[in-house]
Amino acid sequence: MPSDVFFASRPVATKPPSPTPDLSSILAPQKTSGIGKKTRRPPTGCEISPSPFRPDVPAIDRLRAWTSPYLEYFNRRLRQHLSPLAANKTQELVFAALEPNTRTSCGAGLLRFHEFCDSEGIPESLRMPEPAYLLAAFVAWQVGTVSVSTIDNWLTAVRTWHDVNGARWEGDARIVSLVRTSALKRTPACSRGAKRSPVT
Question: Where is this region: Disordered (predicted)?
Answer without folding.
Answer: 1-51
